Amino acid sequence: MRETQQNIDSEVRLWQEKLFSRSIRRKRKLERMSELIGSTLNLQCLEVSAGDGIISTKLRASGGSWKSVVPGKPEKESLDFFLNENIAILEDGKLPFEDHTFDRLIIVDALKYFENDYEFIHECHRVLKNDGWVIISETRRAPASIVALFQNILGLAPLSKGARRNGYKAHELFDKLKDGFDVPETIAYSNGLLESASTIGEAVQNKLLGNAYWLIDAKVGQADLTGYRKLYSLGTATLPLYWVCSLFEFIPGHKLLVKSRRRHWRPRLSPKLVDGRSIAEAAINTKIGTAAPF
């Protein structure tokens, strides 16, 4: 029985690699993140993962020492399948590491799962070395987009899958980081046409497997292998369509990437007037061109 399960596990890993090769979105995400992370040889790295074990494995190929933490049990089960490591589930967004431990901290689609994301960013700042970097991969929130419409209709919006929010606008990520990190730029990629097609594809995948195919359950078995084979055939047939969709880079992107250097934590407070109001409040409550409030 044990040998049979080992054979199934080996097949699952093989099919997960094959399915990754058919996913333009996941390959592009890995490429973009790897470009920002750079060489990690001789570096201490921490990954905060949403459970994609293939991406976790491939990030480690660039060298260095790696640890991973996750927001919940399903993500832990998935990484446990791929990584021979102690994967910690974060309690109340607290990282179980000493101050100034890591050179790189990579958050892969997991920030939106934390109730208090600002405090979690403060935790990331604490465990990074003085010259450390944080790299964040997240969903770009665009409520009025066709992608958001498809996600809501098909029940695939992040909020529907247990997240605390449906992603971030670029300025919202900047607001979370600005007190402790220098944010040179925010990169948007993966255009709306590709994301729309991929959302429909994700609905088909969930119909076959009942969950994201890259999120490995602790009780993976023959039924999953059958689903993987069907998904691979479907992915092979639709790959040319996804590739064409990926070429329309002039359409706004729906994925965000940020690389930010750590600096001293100093809250950047909005300037206040003598009476305690913010400038924005004063502009709203005062008629322009007069000194008297309406």
List keywords for this structure.
8 strands; eight-stranded mixed β-sheet; 294 residues; alpha/beta; disordered C terminus; Rossmann fold
User: What string gives the helices and strands in order?
Assistant: HHEHEHEEHEHHEEHHEH
What is the third-level CATH name, the topology?
Answer: Rossmann fold
CATH architecture: 3-Layer(aba) Sandwich
Number of domains: 1
* β-strand amount: 15-25%
How would you classify the helix and strand content by structural class? alpha/beta
Number of helical regions: 10
Under CATH, the homologous superfamily reads: Vaccinia Virus protein VP39
Q: Tell me the Rg in angstroms.
A: 21 Å
Uncertain stretches of 5 or more adjacent residues: 280-294
Oligomer: single chain
The total strand number stands at: 8
The average pLDDT value, as a whole number, equals 90
Categorize the overall geometry.
globular
Gap from first CA to last CA: 79 Å
Largest pleated sheet: 8 strands, mixed
**What is the helix fraction of residues, given as a range?**
40-55%
Level-1 CATH class name: Alpha Beta
